[in-house]
Amino acid sequence: MTGLMNSVRRVARLAVVVMATVLLVAPAWAVDGDELKALGYASHQESVHCGVLNRDLQVKILSPLAYNWDDEQYCVLYAMDSRSDEQVAAAVAAFDNQRDDVLPILIVRVPDAVTQSADLADCMAGTLFPFVEADYRVVPYRILAGNRVDARMALTLGANYSNHFHSILAEAESTEAIPADQLESLIKGLTAQTTFPRTICAATMAGAPDLPAFQQIANALKTRPGTTVRFVVQNADIPADQKEGGLLLYKGLIGTFSDWYVKKDVGELGLEGVQTHYDHLGDMVGVELPVPQELINRLARALLDKSDYVKLLNVLKFNAVKHPASAKAHAALGQGWEVNNRVR
After folding, report:
1. Does residue 291 sit in helix, strand or coil?
2. Residue 183 and residue 178: Cα distance in Å, rounded?
């Protein structure tokens, strides 16, 4: 069954993961446009008017190459990051290409004018979110990350703008201790959240001045009933080149999407079980989330291995209905008929 069982896609995914890993651990290597394409991403500019700043913004979008030929929906990473396109894409690709139970990720590079603005949150909510979610095939599952997001900014955004982001990943450390009054305010704001953000991940290292405050916040969130915020402290005491290469971003994405992972055997779960998993996840994060096409393909392979051709065809029909513009889904359905000796 060519479309379901051939190893070409898996070999290609492995190659991307290997290359992404190399860029994560050896970012000093020279990069060029060909490497971005090899990582599975293309880059283009969009001009968007920002009413808050009263100016046009040049927004760079890094879209997976597959975006042009599939009809999958995507999550969005808003990257406040000074690194090259290749380094940001490498961190995302290293994660994305290892998971088939998570929707793929579109990267939006936040313009410097927005990053440096005192009206950062309003600029994003008033300009970037509506533009991306109207013009691109995405679900409004938003992640803010990058080496220009420091830990205190992440906490402040999480406490004061809870409906903006589902995950905030801070790669820059706060260099000063958080004052007691500000700490109290942050804890109060974060523990009051019942919707977004789901995950805040802050980077710090042993002995850092902000670590005691982080520990207090983490303890408060664990013991507060009903709180949905998960606060994770990453150890940034890692080699500088790996940190610069995006290792913290990669690890943060693993934490961000941990709720998404299908931990049971998909063949045993079946189509109904997989749908139930995503319905529950969507209710939890407040976003309607479709079942990823690659996860459906994994389920189909599991059913093929069990020679359960009736369920296999039902799964392939479901995929073709859910993804009517996907040639891959229709090709797999055709191959499913072929396996059943029902080519005509």
Report:
1. coil
2. 6
